[in-house]
Design goal:
Elements lengths: L7 H5 L4 H7 L6 E3 L12 H8 L10 E5 L2 E2 L6 E5 L5 E5 L1 H9 L3 E4 L7 H14 L3 E9 L13 E8 L2 E9 L16 H8 L2 E7 L4 E4 L3 E7 L3 E9 L4 H8 L19 H20 L1 H16 L15 E4 L4 E6 L2 E6 L5 E2 L5 H8 L3 E3 H7 L5 H13 L3 E3 L1
Antiparallel strand pairs: 1-11, 2-3, 2-6, 4-5, 6-7, 7-13, 8-11, 8-13, 9-10, 9-12, 14-18, 14-19, 15-16, 16-17
Length: 400
């Protein structure tokens, strides 16, 4: 059984990474059957029990329960106590949690993406590849007990099956540009409207350990355990919406005197039209400025990696972190050596002493400086720096 931490490309194997990003991601669902031990390093029943034993980190928002399509009210499985914020609030009562599980409820543990090395590895990998922050939820459910009705998620879902069996149905219906904003997420719909919105079944699969199911944001789906106990991890990548960036931009607009100008009287229709045109023109100028466009990229990068930590205490300071931009690039070997090929650009030929380290880098999505130090102790600092600079100039690496 493998214990090697997963990367994005290992997660979706044997599907090619470039092909997945080009033809599947954010476009259509895909079922990827896998060997039973494929996800062994990701999560297990033991991991589930271990993180549940971290009893002080759970709250009604991070530990949820559902049964028959309805959420179990927190008051039914929680007690009032002192929270981690040193305030009075509801905390899970694990005796009552298990009573609900015995009665067929589904358990959902939210915000677990950084709680174990295995969970953290895929979270960081997904963020590096997709350019969007990743979240993770563990679902534990039992034979023929449906926790949730048909629904869609506002994230792109990677369902990773850990144990037992679960029957998934994916429907044709898809909510346009689903996101965490008004009109972008699912509100309570009567059963008759839900059935119309979700459409027809386009995929039905029974997942077993090692399987992965990808579902784009907004696409309706549901699932029910078909074994005594079932465990899976759902990863979600959430891409920022236009509204997210405008929310960041709007508070800075009054720095321009134009946006501090007083509005005309409410009965001056001609002035309203003139001002509307002027606002549109000024906003166009703002959006075309290099500062705003650079700010958009920095905003997206910041959101993607805001939870990445490379602490190496007691060493103070954090080692440099690199994102590997392998999409659209490949390593090829011929009689003359190893080359990095990127589209129409001239292939980058690597020195023999650089080849092993370059191959190690290319196989990853994110790595820290100290990781390559430990993996290649015989590569001198100057040689390593030269290689990193070369790969960064070729577009394979991005220093975060």
């Amino acid at each position: 059984m493998t214990t090697e931490l997963l990367t994005f490309r290992r997660l979706i194997a044997p599907i090619d990474g470039d092909d997945f990003l080009r033809n599947t991601y954010r476009r259509q669902p895909l079922y990827i059957p896998g060997e039973e031990d494929k996800l062994a390093s990701l999560f297990s029943w033991e991991d589930l029990n271990d993180i549940m034993a971290m009893s002080t980190i759970w709250s009604p928002s991070t530990l949820e329960m559902a049964k028959g399509g309805n959420r179990v009210e927190p008051s039914a499985y929680c007690y009032e106590g002192i929270t981690r914020d040193n305030e009075r609030g509801l905390l899970p009562d694990f005796n009552r949690v298990h009573q609900h599980l015995v009665q067929g409820a589904t358990l959902a543990l939210n915000q677990i993406a950084r709680l174990t090395p295995g969970l953290r590895a895929i979270s960081e990998s997904l963020e590096a590849v997709t350019g969007a922050p990743a979240s993770a939820v563990a679902f534990c459910s039992f034979n023929q007990s449906a926790g949730y009705v048909s629904h869609f998620d506002t994230t792109n879902v990677f369902a990773c099956h850990i144990a037992g069996r679960k029957l998934w149905r994916v429907y044709s219906g898809r909510h346009p540009n689903a996101c965490e904003h008004a009109h972008g997420y699912q509100t309570s719909l009567p059963p008759e409207q839900l059935e119309v919105a979700r459409g027809d079944v386009v995929m039905e699969v029974e997942m077993t350990p090692g399987d992965v199911l990808y579902i784009p944001h907004g696409q309706y789906h549901d699932a029910v355990a078909t074994s005594e106990a079932s465990l899976h991890i759902t990863y979600g990548t959430r891409h920022m919406a236009v509204q997210d960036f405008l929310h960041q931009l709007l508070p800075d607009l009054p720095g321009d005197p134009f946006f501090r100008a007083h509005l005309p009287a409410y009965d001056d229709a001609a002035a309203h039209k003139t001002l509307g045109n002027a606002i549109a023109a000024r906003l166009q100028q703002v959006m075309n400025s290099s500062n705003v466009q650079d700010g958009l990229r920095h905003f997206l990068q910041g959101k993607t990696y805001e939870r990445v930590s490379s602490s190496r205490l007691p060493q103070r300071g954090q080692p440099p972190t690199y994102r590997v931009r392998w999409a659209g690039r490949r390593l090829e070997r011929d009689a003359h050596g190893l080359h990095l090929v990127a589209g129409e650009a001239k292939p980058l030929t690597l020195e023999p002493k650089e080849e092993d380290a370059a191959a190690w880098i290319y196989d990853r999505d994110l790595f820290r400086q100290d990781e390559i130090d430990a993996s290649f102790p015989n590569l001198e600092a100057g040689q390593q720096n030269a290689l990193l600079s070369k790969l960064e100039a070729a577009g394979l690496l991005e220093r975060l």
